[in-house]
Design a protein that fits this description.
Length: 423
């Protein structure tokens, strides 16, 4: 294992005609934190003092290691000599991990068929939900998650339900004598996290806090995902005033606003219906940052002859949108993309629907929205439109003017604005 590493927090490099200003809130941030350091220290201690001395099977040079939800590659690269399997919900990890690997030449001597990480789209447990054709950021088959792992190193997520889901999934992936190291920054730990751990795994030790970070050492528990009701939560959305036409959407735990309709989305929905109904048969529509897919499904409900694509940086969001689309429109065909923005091979669209996120972990700003605006401009056909909703105070109407010659505001509430931008 190699530490310290040379790591940078980076975003995909903009092309010359789409230069996005560096965000003042993120430009100076490093690509690892104290939680990454503590996790690597605990992993090193376990390998050197428990695995190598007591448990190393004959002929097995190193433990089988799984890294879950690495932020920018620090955990994966810190454990590189152990040849870890990396699995992340976010598609953003792939390019950042590749970039940081390039900054560390000593690791490249041990370069394997990566550093593209797996996602939950590659998980055989969720395979029934991803039966629809889906393009993900991973070229690997799901076999990498078959079998058991001796060591799982995991970042603790901000959502309590996602943490509970992860711990139950890890139980099925961890060897009987394996170890789970879960860590995070204390201010970002979900509420009731102590109870969540107690209900799912065997907590062996809660390590002392250091630099406002904490690591929990766990053993395999008995809790499973099978019949765990909170795995999928959702809500019903009435079409017009007729309750009989209500459509339901559900989502996995990593998806934003999975159990109730986001109020910004509620403001945007009537405009989605109107815009979709006016499109010609065969028009291409993209639900960008799709979440559970509610905007795209509303478009298809208004016009059943659309060619619809769902895309999100979260693999659990893509899986959720796929499950909802297959259930609500079983005779229709769709495309699904697990991508940070819009895949380069995504083609061009007549209409792009967007409710952009404005926070990434603990960082709040417009950097995500700006990147999505730039991607939307590249992938709109001439005359195509971007239809979005945003918080009024974020000033998206000014940002859009840097990318699109025409921007108008068809609707507004005291808190939200609906904006339409066209090429």
């Amino acid at each position: 294992m190699i530490w310290p590493l040379n790591l940078e927090r980076v975003a995909p490099a903009p092309t010359p005609d789409e230069a996005v200003r560096p965000n003042a809130n993120t430009a100076s941030l490093q690509a690892w934190d104290a939680a990454d350091e503590l996790l690597l220290q605990q992993a090193t201690h376990w390998v050197e003092n428990e695995w190598l001395e007591d448990k190393q099977p004959a002929g097995k040079q190193h433990p089988r290691v799984l890294v879950v939800d690495d932020n920018f590659g620090a955990l994966t690269l810190g454990l590189w000599d152990l040849q870890p399997v990396t699995l992340a919900d976010s598609a953003a990890l792939g390019p950042v991990l590749a970039h940081n690997l390039a900054l560390n030449p000593p690791l490249q001597s041990n370069l394997r068929d990566r550093p593209v990480p797996l996602s939950w789209c590659d998980d055989p447990v969720l395979a029934p939900e991803t039966a629809t054709t889906m393009a993900t950021n991973s070229p690997h088959s799901a076999y990498r998650l078959n079998g058991l792992f001796d060591l799982v190193v995991m970042r603790i997520p901000r959502y309590g339900d996602y943490l509970a889901w992860l711990l139950r999934r890890v139980n099925a992936l961890l060897a009987d004598d394996g170890v789970l190291l879960a860590g995070g920054m204390i201010k970002h730990l979900p509420d009731r996290s102590v109870d969540v751990f107690a209900q799912a795994v065997v907590t062996e030790k809660v390590c002392p806090a250091r630099k406002k970070a904490r690591v929990v050492i766990c053993r395999k528990g008995s809790a499973e995902l099978t019949n765990w009701t909170p795995a999928w939560l959702g809500y019903s959305l009435a079409a017009g005033a007729e309750a009989a036409k209500a459509r339901s959407v559900v989502a996995l735990p990593a998806v934003f606003a999975r159990d109730k309709l986001d109020i910004g989305t509620r403001v945007l929905l009537p405009h989605v219906t109107q815009a979709a109904a006016a499109l010609a048969p065969g028009a291409r529509v993209l639900d960008l940052a799709c979440g559970n897919g509610v905007l795209g499904l509303a478009a298809l409900a208004a016009n059943s002859h659309l060619e619809l694509t769902f895309s999100d940086v979260s693999s659990q969001a893509v899986i959720s949108a796929a499950a909802n689309a297959a259930r609500e429109f079983p005779r229709s065909t769709f495309s699904f993309r697990h991508a940070d923005g819009i895949s380069a091979d995504g083609g061009e669209f007549d209409l792009i629907l967007l409710n952009p996120p404005f926070h990434e972990g603990g960082v709040v700003g417009d950097h995500i929205a700006l990147a999505l605006f730039a991607a939307a401009r590249r992938h709109l056909r001439p005359g195509g439109r971007l239809l979005l909703v945003g918080n009024r105070h974020l000033g998206y109407h000014r940002s859009l003017g840097r990318f699109f010659p025409q921007v108008r505001q068809p609707d507004a509430t005291p808190k939200f604005v609906v904006l339409e931008a066209s090429r």
